[in-house]
Amino acid sequence: MPFTAVPAYALSITELTDILGRCFQDYFVPFTLTPEHFAARFIAEGLSFADSCVWFADNEPVAIALITRRGNRARLAAFAIQPGWRGKGLTKPMLSVLFAGLTEVTSLSLEVIRENRPAIALYQSLGFCVARELCGYQGKLVEPRTELADDSLDGLLCAIYRGPAENTPWQLDPLCFPSLPCRVVKDGEHAWGVIATLTATPQLRYLFVDPAHRRQGLARQLLQKINAQYPGIGTPVAVPSAFSSLFEGAGFKEMVIAQYEMVRTP
Q1: Nearest-CA neighbor of 94 among 110, 81, 107, 108?
Q2: What is the pLDDT of residues 75-131, one digit of tens each?
Q3: List of residues 6+ apart from 152 with CB closer than 8 A
């Protein structure tokens, strides 16, 4: 059956949210969003409505792909097929055409659940390689205490961009924060945290310590204070596993689910 590929800009946020939810039915990990959360999350991540696509058959959505972009870097932020169309060999040809249409892109990335072996093999066949493992962490339930001061987003961004560039996972990149509902907290003069308030449950999205003041325990101290103010706070499953000792040392536990970040250089 022939498919019609429709760019995301031809559909409303409400329609895109509905299609995404329908395509993620019975997925490896449950995935649901409201239109408000869809807009806030994916616009903060740099959603490209021109590059993102929905495939239709007889006016019914079959699959959806969301592409986010920052300059010459692009990312497959989401891809899913309706349950009745899975297992028919559609993913590879759909994504091959989609990726071929991305202009002026020098790096293309995505995240995939670590245990989803078929998906990993598929992306490898499309030229992607595993770059690193991404984990999520959950704090302890403790007696709440308020110890942290608020700071401006401008103050944090100035501190970040004074330092050297760092290879931050897409969802945790500071470029998200101007469009993402969040609170910036500061501990002393050299350590900051970002708490996302997009949902009813706050989420730790970022930690930053001035490069000149690292390896002094400031990040671990900040993590403990954040957990004291937001008992049991978690992170997205987007933290490089290289930081596991930091989180575990602050009393956080690694979540069961982990992801691989995969990258392709066209």
Answers
A1: 81
A2: 999 999 999 999 999 999 999 999 999 999 999 999 999 999 999 999 999 999 999
A3: 184
What is the sign, positive or negative, of the torsion defined by CA atoms of 206, 183, 237, 67? negative
What residue has token string 């590929």? 5
Beta partners for residue 107, in sequence order: 73
Radius of gyration (Cα) for the chain, nearest Å?
19
Q: Would you mind telling me the total number of residues written for the chain in this entry?
A: 266
Q: Token digits for 160? A: 């970040």
- Secondary structure element (H or E) that encloses residue 81, with its range: strand 73-81
User: The whole model's pTM is what?
Assistant: 0.94
Q: Which of 93, 109, 210 is nearest to 160 (CA)?
A: 210
Instruction: Compute the half-sphere exposure of residue 183: CA atoms within 13 Å on the CB side of its CA.
Output: 15
Q: How far apart are CA 53 and CA 64, in angstroms?
A: 6
Q: Which two tokens stand for residue 109?
A: 């990335």
